Amino acid sequence: MNQEDDATIIHYPKGALLTVTLSDQSKFLVSFQTSPNSSALQWLTPPQTFNKTLPFVYTQCQAIHARSIFPCQDTPAARITYSAKINIPRVLSAVMSARHVERRVPTAGEAGAACDDSMWCAEDRIVEDFVMEQPIPPYLFAFAVGEISHREVGPRTRVYAESVPSVLDSAAREFAGTEDMIRQGEKLFGPYDWERFDLLVLPRSFPYGGMENPRMVFLTPTVIKGDATGAQVVAHELAHSWTGNLITNKNNEHFWLNEGFTTYAERRIVEVVQGEDRAALNIGIGWKGLNDEMERFKDNMEFTKLKTNQEGVDPDDVYSQVPYEKGFQFLWRIERQIGRPAFDEFVKKYITTFKFQSIDTETFLDFLKANVPDIEKEINLELWTEGTGIPPDALAPESKLYTKITSLAHEFIHGRMPRDDEVAEWGGQEWELYLEFLPKSVEASQVSALDARYRLAESKDYEVKVAFLQLAISSGCRDYYGEVEKTLKEVGRMKYLRPLYTYLVQGPGKEEEKILAKRVFAETRACYHPIAQGVVEAILSKHL
Questions:
Q1: Where does Zn(2+) bind (predicted)?
Q2: Residue 29 falls within a domain, yes or no?
Q3: DSSP-assigned letter for residue 402
Q4: What is the domain range of residue 376?
Q5: What is the pLDDT along the chain (544 residues), one digit of tens a residue?
Q6: DSSP class of residue 202?
Q7: Does 400 appear as a known binding residue?
Q8: Last residue of a domain, one of 205, 233, 261
Q9: Is residue 11 domain-resident?
Q10: Are 469 and 516 in contact (CB under 8 A)?
Q11: Are the C-beta atoms of residues 212 and 63 closer than 8 Å to each other?
Q12: Catalytic one among 58, 319, 324, 454?
């Protein structure tokens, strides 16, 4: 059938409604063209890649950007299966969140209305075929094309990246323990249903730490830290294989069902694979982040709830740690109430019951009350899911290492810097926690002295570097503004862009800092993913 004759398109603020009238047809074909300005796609020129020789393109569809690539019901409530033919230059390779079928020569006539055969079948073109046979929400549709190679790191895992040996080798070392994490995940949550768990390290512009695309997790290169702690991000994306990909929130008002469960699962995996102290540090960093979000949303406490009202709201504008950390705290509270063995059985039953479904908070609570009798008498479920702020029965982590680090941070305001012997065994996470708990504004001389002793501004761990640079900005320590500019220009991860730009422009005065922020963004905007561009533009428009 002809789309022009039998379909109408009505445009709405949330997208365009395509209505198709069928007579005796059982299927129809929609021909479409994606805009070069698609918010889900970033087209990188050779200078923006690691290799500097060939272009690169990748997708980021979460939360509501799949609609900018192909016509779909862009909601997690609608699951899809798909097959794809990606026609690319022969010198490049494609990966996808789907099973790779073959790499082959193009065939005349298969392009349909996409392009003519002379372009599709040109000598320098190749086709990569993929198929996703398991139903997934549209935001998990993903692909990347570039000069891509891989390393084997386990029976179910390859690490992909641009064909730069140093990047590939360092990623393979960082994620060498992935199979151990998969096995631990299976012990906790049941069989891994996606066959492969491959990892793609993207160029520096990738706006997130990781994206849990099934079969092909996307990662920022900033998680490669050289000490295997970057594998905690992999643990998080792996946990999504059960909570998020198998069971999905029905819409973004219930995002905690994805991220709260996954944060809980991540920490259970880390606890076994890397130890209880490491898991406690992870919880501690999250606890501090959750408290910081309460300050961020103090004028709009709706977004401190687990179940939020997002009518007319772009999910990217209210993205925060709340669904992750408050969601984790809620599940941890249930675990403490009924005991870990009982909670483990509950989680396995939950996953088995709702796999390949999209659910809401009410569905979860009904299932909880049906399987844990009288739980509503022990825990205020309504307060946890619909109340603002942090409930009184939330809990900071308990460990000697966590207590020692936070105590040292509190002593800093009185001028006491940690001794060399106290930090001799610290890695990136210890320093990150220490810096997060320092007062937000101290004397510039104290900041300089701390860095002179421990070289934090030069850290290869961006969590440490950015936490230190936030301290430097808030303390008016202008000696580090050059490092701030360098950092903003070399990474596109929103976890770092959001606080650095905010610290530069938020608050009275700060004329020099505001000029710096505007100039750096103007010079770097094209290097950021469209989602990150929008986030930074919102920060600048609010404060300038």
A1: 236, 240, 259
A2: no
A3: H
A4: 242-386
A5: 333 344 455 544 567 788 888 888 888 888 888 888 888 998 988 888 888 899 999 999 988 899 989 888 888 999 999 999 999 999 999 999 999 999 999 999 998 888 889 999 999 999 999 999 999 999 999 999 999 999 999 999 999 999 999 999 999 999 999 999 999 999 989 999 999 999 999 998 888 888 989 999 999 999 998 877 788 889 899 999 999 899 999 988 999 999 999 999 999 998 998 888 889 989 998 999 999 999 989 999 999 999 999 888 888 788 899 999 999 999 999 999 999 999 999 999 999 999 999 999 999 999 999 999 999 999 999 999 999 999 999 998 888 888 999 999 999 888 889 999 999 989 888 999 999 999 877 889 999 999 999 999 999 899 999 999 999 999 999 999 999 999 999 999 999 999 999 999 998 878 999 999 999 999 999 889 888 999 999 999 988 8
A6: P
A7: no
A8: 233
A9: no
A10: no
A11: no
A12: 324
Same-domain check for residues 273 and 346: yes
Based on the fold, state whether residues 81 and 116 are members of the same structural domain.
yes
- 488 and 368 co-located in one domain: no
Does 376 participate in catalysis according to the annotation? no
- 3-state secondary structure string, 218-262? EECHHHCCCCCCCHHHHHHHHHCCCECCCEEECCHHHCHHHHHHH
Q: How many domains does the structure of the chain reveal?
A: 3
Is residue 391 a part of any domain in this protein?
A: no
Residue 19 lies in a domain: no
Q: Residue 507 sits in a domain of what CATH number?
A: 1.25.40.320
101 and 220 together in one domain: yes
Q: Is 380 exposed, middle or buried (0-12, 13-18, 19+ CB in 10 A)?
A: middle
Q: Do 281 and 375 belong to one domain?
A: yes
Tokens representing residue 310 in the block: 């997002």
150 is in an annotated binding site: no
Question: Catalytic pick from 237, 293, 432, 463?
Answer: 237
Q: Is 62 annotated among the ligand-binding residues?
A: yes
For residue 194, what is the DSSP state?
Answer: T
Whether 252 and 132 map to the same domain: the answer is no
The pTM (predicted TM-score) of the whole model is 0.88
In 3D, which of 315, 97, 359 has the Cα closest to residue 212? 97
CATH code at position 320 = 1.10.390.10
Q: Which of 192, 213, 233 is the last residue of a domain?
A: 233
Please tell me whether 96 is known to bind a ligand: no
CATH of the domain at 142: 3.30.2010.30
**Is 494 a known ligand-binding residue?**
yes
1 is in an annotated binding site: no
Beta bridge partners of 44: 56
| Residue 76 and residue 215 in one domain | yes
The reply, when asked if residue 11 is annotated as ligand binding, is no
Across the chain, how many H-helices and E-strands are there? 21, 16
Segment (H or E) for 358: strand 357-359
Annotation marks residue 324 as catalytic: yes
Report how far apart, in Å, the C-alpha atoms of 404 and of each of 122, 275, 407 are.
Answer: 64, 17, 5
Say if residue 382 is in the same domain as residue 414. Answer: no
